[in-house]
Design goal:
This protein has helices at 3-15, 21-24, 26-33, 37-40, 42-62, 67-85, 91-102, 104-119, 125-151, 157-175, 184-192, 195-202, 205-234, 240-268, 270-290, 294-310, 312-322, 328-356, 362-377, 384-391. It is mostly helical. It is globular and about 50 Å long.
C-alpha cells in the first residue's frame, strides 16, 4: 500500500481519538453539571445536528480542493476545539466545543475515504477500507483508555489537552506533504457538472434503499453507544473510571473486527458481510441485556464491539462500489449526512424512552431498530458483477 494511503489512515487514527470520550463522559457530566439524562443527551444531539448541516456542503467541496488541505483543516479544527474543551467550566461551552470538534469528522471522512477509493484498485477496496477502519478503531481505543487513566488522577479535561498536541502537529505534517494530491482530470469533471446533475448521479433508488437500511440500524447503534457507560454506572454500579475502561476495551476488539470485515467482504461480498455483522450485533446486545455477572458482561460487550466495528468496512465498501468515481466526495457526504441525521435524533429519542421507564430500556430500543435495519437491507440489490467478484 502506498504512502498516501498510510498518511490518510494515521489521520483517521488521530481523528477518532475523541470519538467515544464525549459519550463515555456523560455520567461525569451528569454529576459535575447537575444534569438529567435528557439534558446530558444534548452533548450528543446538538453537535450531531451541527455536523449534519455541514455534511453535504463539505461533499461539494471535497472534489474541488486538494485532499491534504482538507485533512489539515480537519486536524486544525479538532486540535483547536480540544484545547477549548480542556479549559471549559460551563455546560454550554462544553456543548459548543464538542460541536466544533464534530465538524472535523465529515471534513476528514468525506475527503479521506473518497481519496482511498481512488488510490486503491477496486478488487482491493474492501481490505484497504478494513485497514483504514482498524486504524480508526485503534484511535478510539487509545482515546478511551487514556480517559480512564486521567479520570483516576488529573481529571477528564487533561484527556483533551493531552491529545491536542499530536493532532495539531500531524496536521502541519499533512500540510507539507507532496504525496496527497487530487487528480486534476476528476477535479475538472466535478466542476463542470451542475449541482442537480451531480445529485442525480448519486441519489439513485438502490443507493436510497441502502441509506434507509443503515439509517434504521444507526438509530439502535447510536442509542446503545451513547448510554452504555451511563448504564454501567447507574445500573451495574461500576465507577466512572472502570466503566470508561470497559467501554474503551471495545475499540481494541474493533481493530480485529474492522480487519475481519474487510477480509470477509472480499470473500463473500460486502452485502452478505454487512447482514451477518448486523445480525451478530443484535444477538450480542440481546444476550448482554440478560447478563448480570461483571466478567460475562465485559466479555459479551467485547463481542458486541467486534460486530459493531466490523460494520463500517462493508458499509464504506458498498458506498465506493455503487457510486460514480468522480462523485465519491458527494456520495460519501450523502452517506454521512444520513448517519449524522440519525445521530442527532437517536440520543434524545433514547433518553426520552429511558426517562419514561429506566436506563435498561436502551436494550430493547436499540435491538428493534438494528433488526429493522437488517430487514431493510435485504431490499437493497448489490450489483451482480460485484457479487461475482467476491466469489472469485
Amino acid at each position: 500500500m502506498e504512502k498516501p494511503f498510510w498518511m490518510i489512515c494515521i489521520t483517521h487514527m488521530l481523528l477518532e481519538v475523541y470519538l467515544l470520550i464525549q459519550v463515555a463522559l456523560i455520567p461525569v457530566y451528569i454529576r459535575e453539571f447537575q444534569l438529567s439524562i435528557l439534558e446530558a443527551s444534548l452533548v450528543a444531539t446538538i453537535p450531531s445536528l451541527i455536523q449534519l448541516l455541514m455534511n453535504v456542503p463539505f461533499g461539494f467541496l471535497v472534489d474541488r480542493f486538494q485532499v491534504k488541505h482538507l485533512l489539515f483543516a480537519s486536524m486544525l479544527i479538532e486540535g483547536a476545539s480540544a484545547l477549548l474543551l480542556s479549559q471549559t467550566n460551563s455546560f454550554w461551552m462544553l456543548v459548543f466545543g464538542v460541536a466544533m470538534m464534530k465538524l472535523s469528522s465529515p471534513l476528514y471522512h468525506i475527503s479521506g475515504l473518497s481519496q482511498i477509493s481512488k488510490l486503491v484498485k477496486q478488487e482491493k477496496i474492501s481490505r484497504s477500507i478494513g485497514v483504514h477502519n482498524a486504524l480508526g478503531s485503534l484511535g478510539v481505543a487509545i482515546g478511551a483508555v487514556s480517559l480512564a487513566f486521567f479520570l483516576t488522577g488529573l481529571g477528564w479535561r487533561w484527556t483533551y489537552l493531552f491529545w491536542a498536541i499530536p493532532v495539531l502537529l500531524w496536521g502541519f505534517i499533512i500540510l507539507r506533504s507532496f504525496q496527497l494530491e487530487t487528480r486534476p482530470l476528476e477535479k475538472k469533471e466535478a466542476e463542470r457538472r451542475e449541482v442537480l446533475e451531480r445529485l442525480s448521479l448519486v441519489l439513485h433508488l438502490n443507493f436510497l434503499l441502502f441509506l434507509i437500511a443503515i439509517g434504521l440500524r444507526e438509530v439502535g447503534a447510536t442509542g446503545i453507544s451513547t448510554f452504555m457507560t451511563t448504564y454501567l454506572v447507574k445500573i451495574r454500579g461500576l465507577s466512572e473510571a472502570v466503566s470508561s475502561l470497559v467501554f474503551g476495551l471495545g475499540p481494541f476488539i474493533g481493530i480485529v473486527g474492522a480487519l475481519s470485515g474487510g477480509y470477509l467482504g472480499e470473500k463473500i461480498g460486502a452485502k452478505r458481510t454487512l447482514s451477518l455483522v448486523i445480525l451478530g450485533s443484535a444477538v450480542s446486545l440481546y444476550v448482554l441485556s440478560l447478563t448480570s455477572q461483571l466478567y460475562l458482561l465485559a466479555l459479551i460487550y467485547l463481542l458486541h464491539a467486534f460486530f459493531s466495528h466490523s460494520i463500517w468496512t462493508p458499509m464504506n465498501t458498498i458506498v465506493s462500489d455503487i457510486t460514480p468515481r468522480t462523485e465519491r466526495g458527494l456520495s460519501f457526504s450523502v452517506y454521512f449526512f444520513t448517519e449524522g441525521l440519525i445521530a442527532s435524533i437517536a440520543p434524545t429519542a433514547a433518553a426520552a424512552v429511558m426517562e419514561l421507564s429506566n436506563i435498561s430500556y436502551i436494550f430493547p430500543f436499540s435491538i428493534v431498530f438494528i433488526v429493522a435495519g437488517l430487514v431493510a437491507l435485504q431490499l437493497f440489490a448489490y450489483p451482480r458483477n460485484l457479487l461475482a467478484r467476491a466469489k472469485v
